[in-house]
Amino acid sequence: MSVQIKTVDIAPRRQTFGHVARRLGGDKPASRYQEATYDIQATANFHYKPYWEPEFWTYDTRKTAVVMDDWYKPIDPRQYYYAAYNIARANMNQAVDRNFSFVEERGLLAKISPQARAALERGLLPLRHLHWGGNMNMTEICQRGYGTAITAPCIFSAADQLGMAQIISRIGLVLDSQSATSLDAAKKTWLEDPAWQEVRRLIEDSFVERDWFQLYVAQTLGVNGVLLDFIYKFAEPAFADAGLSVAMLTEFMQDWRAEESRWSDSVVKVVAAESAHNKALVSQWATHWIARAVEAAKPLCSALLGDGGKAALAAGEAARLRAAALGLEV
Amino acid sequence: MTVKKLGLRQRYEHMTRGLDWETTYQKMDDVFPYDSFEGIKIKDWSAWEDPFRLTMDTYWKFQAEKERKLYAVLDAFAQNNGQTNLSDGRYVNVVKLFLTGISPEEYQAHRGFAFTGRHLRGAGARVAAQMQSLDELRHLQTQVHTISHYNKFFDGISEFPHMHDRVWYLSVPKSFFDDARSAGPFEFMIAIGFAFEYLLTNLLFVPFMSGAAYNGDMSTVTFGFSAQSDESRHMTLGIEVIKFLLEQHPDNLPIVQKWVDKWFWRGHRLLGLVAMMMDYMLPKKVMSWKEAWDIYFVEAGGSLFQDLERYGLKMPKYADIATEEAEHISHQNWAVFYQYTHAAAFHTWMPDKEHLDWLSAKYPNTFDKYYRPRWELWAEMEKEGKRFYNMALPQLCQTCQIPMAYTEPGNPAAICFRATQFQGETYHFCSDGCKDIFDGEPEKYVQAWMPVQQIFQGNCGGATVPDVLAWYNMNAGADNMDYTGSPDEKIWKEWHPDADVARKAV
After folding, report:
1. Which CB contacts under 8 angstroms, 24+ apart, belong to B302-309?
2. In this structure, are residues A86 and A92 in contact, taking their beta carbons and an 8 Å threshold?
3. Tens digit of pLDDT per residue, chain A (330 long)?
4. Mean of the pLDDT values across residues B103-117?
């Protein structure tokens, strides 16, 4: 038996907005993702050329060399709009808080070996700056990119990168008893330690990349795909007896990487599949930035793992396989 | 060993600006190429006071909580056909104006704050701008979801992005935001962060949300309450920006003053649409535009500028003219839309007697003298089957893009015309304020996509009204024209068979 509440039934005159219906091939109920995303960015009849980039309109398909017939093809398989995104992150963050409490209450990081502590200080904490660089790049793609389907997830991704930089900072604060001395030291390492300099050079070079889709490829396949995966997946042995604690405290990053790459890989795949022209460009960019990231990871890898850069090569190989699976020639 | 623990402020700084570094493999000027051409001098970004301290974990937590509540109300509103509980079917036209005219600007703000969130050199300011970028995306998306339900029953909503890029009066808000987006990062922060979000927000956001509250629009007002804490964060950012720029270097003062003058006047012109909404489109009135202007600009704005006086900043130029116009602007705008109802995507009507009396009471200096007689004449003409339509295309102001319908300061019986010569062409303006703005940056404003000129140049689907309406994706006979006789009215009457009787009885 079921309970049935009687409600007044009023037939709607239409199911969704006109522009959404045209994309769905008819007036059908649309999802919240679709209504919040499709055709939201202005596309025509702009008024003034930007003072800061007068060769383009504010929203201009020519800001990248790849060409899409429709920039609403690379949609987000996660179907994130603001609410869905924030709720997902708030849920992930509950685990972060629990894990920090667990580690802090038991003093797990206070008990680690000097070797593990040194590896965390040298190998993990400076990563907050790389995440911050990722934040700058994703914010840039959000502002310069074309079409809400791709630019909206970019500001989410920028927020994620900032959030992850802050999680790493919290790990530093646990290590240094909330004095931030470890964070100051990590910045010095980031700026001066030869092990990090090629990583820093790579991210600084990405800051001046003008083609926003090349920047997208550099960040998602190069920085996230090689450098972040190297630290979070391949460098665990370096953290020795702190390995398990680090794995707990960076659970967010593992979950985020698995989730975000569903989106970022799918975007690359769709854009490359659009034409031979796109495929050639994206392949070239992916080859270039993955190779650079591997070279940048090698000194860090040697310093942390003492393996002559083997794990960096492995991270690069994994990134290449991944890129090949997206239809790229790398 | 004793360690000194961080205070909250220092902890937040480590979590934000502490992440930043001075680049060496690329020059800082190449990493931040846009923050010097405007002439703003920043001696020390570390003096930036974070206007709020939200780390991402707290942001996600707060915002997710607000979103859960908001969407629960939106679902309940839809499930219970909340649209039938509005004060009157006419109210929906406010929602139409909002979604077509304001929501796309929330989106523009989102992309604009992403621009400043990447390109301001100070990392503290960047983080604050990025959070505002996220918030503005939230506002666009939640507004679309809120109004999506209205779109299922009412006309004029369905083509909002298409219309935003084309329809003549939507060119007013669009050009406003295109102007801010095409400016440098500091001007954007003053234009949107300070002038729009701080100085004028109570005259934009609040009237729409209070109007929703008074008229039974539970979903929009719930959005309003939900966005309130975002808006107060935006206000603190806006005020920090202006104080920071003025404190950094005395040379910044004349630049900032010029921007404040410009964006105040541009904002004032844009708010004319809100004025019209408050005085004419809300079936249940909140307050008159004049009252709102006196409270939120004359009083609150006055004390704000008193506070800013210590930096040398003066009240915006033409603030006195704007205050004088507060007695006219809603009537003059409603007159424009009434005449051009065939080309507008919301419905118009002549006020009934009760409404006329309210306007007479609220505008004792102007309404009976200048506007009531015209409204009564037009109502009379409607009765005689000679409803007045203006079939000529209006001349537009080159700056604000509003038809030239505003009157001379001090003489409400004469239309105000101003003109400027630039590179052998004559450009026309509705006011000294708009002319000054043009004269300050003529190369910018000559580029404007002027809806009427574009129609004459054959770029808008054709030469006749039906051609242009088709190009607008405007469903003639449903989206446009008077409320009386519209499909909106028909559906409202189906839900409320006694509505007309009730209205007349009052």
Report:
1. B304/B198, B304/B199, B308/B242, B308/B243, B308/B246
2. no
3. 677 777 677 999 999 999 999 999 999 999 999 999 999 999 999 999 999 999 999 999 999 999 999 999 999 999 999 999 999 999 999 999 999 999 999 999 999 999 999 999 999 999 999 999 999 999 999 999 999 999 999 999 999 999 999 999 999 999 999 999 999 999 999 999 999 999 999 999 999 999 999 999 999 999 999 999 999 999 999 999 999 999 999 999 999 999 999 999 999 999 999 999 999 999 999 999 999 999 999 999 999 999 999 999 999 999 999 999 999 999
4. 97
Chain B residue closest in CA terms to A129: B19
Provide the strand spans (E) within B162-258. none
In degrees and rounded to multiples of 5, residue B426 shows phi and psi of -105, 130
> What domains are defined for chain B?
8-39+52-505 (1.10.620.20)
Whole-angstrom distance, CA of residue A238 vs CA of residue A240: 5
SS3 for B302-345, per residue? Answer: HHHHHHHHHHCCCCCCCHHHHHHHCCCHHHHHHHHHHHCHHHCC
Bridge partners (DSSP) of residue B428 are B419
Question: How many contacts does A have with B, using Cβ atoms within 8 A?
Answer: 252
Helix, strand and coil content of chain A, in percent to the nearest 5, comes to 70, 0, 30
CA–CA gap between residue A272 and residue B96 (Å, rounded): 39
Contacts (Cβ under 8 Å, ≥6 apart) of B170:
B100, B101, B104, B163, B164
- Which of B26, B64, B130 is opposite residue A205, by nearest beta carbon? B26
What DSSP assignment string belongs to B347-400? -B----HHHHHHHHHH-TTTIIIIIHHHHHHHHHHHHTT------SPPPB-TTT
Assign residue A69 a region (left: φ > 0; alpha: ψ between -120 and 50; beta: otherwise): alpha
Q: Find residues 151-180 of chain A whose CB sits inside 8 Å of chain B.
A: 151-152, 155-156, 158-160, 162-163, 165-166, 169, 173, 176-180
Residue among A141, A191, A181, A297 at smallest CA distance from B20: A191
What amino acid occupies position B132? Q
Strands B411-415, B407-408: parallel, antiparallel or unpaired by DSSP?
Answer: antiparallel
In chain A, where the domains are located: 82-325
Task: Say how far apart CA B341 and CA B281 lie, in whole Å.
Answer: 14
Phi, psi (degrees; rounded to nearest 5) at A112: -75, 160
Domain made up of A82-325: CATH architecture: Orthogonal Bundle (1.10)
Tell me the C-alpha distance between B460 and B471, whole Å: 6
The CA distance from A63 to A213, in Å, is: 8
How far apart CA B243 and CA B49 sit, in angstroms, is 10
d(CA B253, CA B257): 6
User: Does the pLDDT value for residue B504 go beyond 60?
Assistant: no
- Phi/psi for A67 (5° steps) reads -125, 130
In this complex, the residue of A46, A148, A179 whose CB is nearest that of residue B3 is: A179
**What is the reported pLDDT for B505?**
46
Among A13, A139, A190, beta carbon nearest to B130: A139
Task: State the Cα torsion B466-B471-B473-B476 to the nearest 10°.
Answer: -10
pLDDT for res B502: 53
Residue of B nearest to A176 (CA): B3
Q: Which residues contact B210 (CB under 8 A, 6 or more apart)?
A: B286
Which pTM was predicted?
Answer: 0.97
Q: Which two tokens stand for residue A69?
A: 């017939």
> Residues near A152 by Cβ (< 8 Å), separated by ≥ 6?
A37, A76, A80, A81, A142, B137
Nearest 5°: CA angle at A275, between A272 and A276? 90
Sign of the C-alpha dihedral computed for residues B137, B141, B142 and B144 taken in this order = positive
Question: How far is C-alpha A213 from the chain's CA centre?
Answer: 14
Quote the distance between the C-alpha of residue B471 and its chain's center: 25
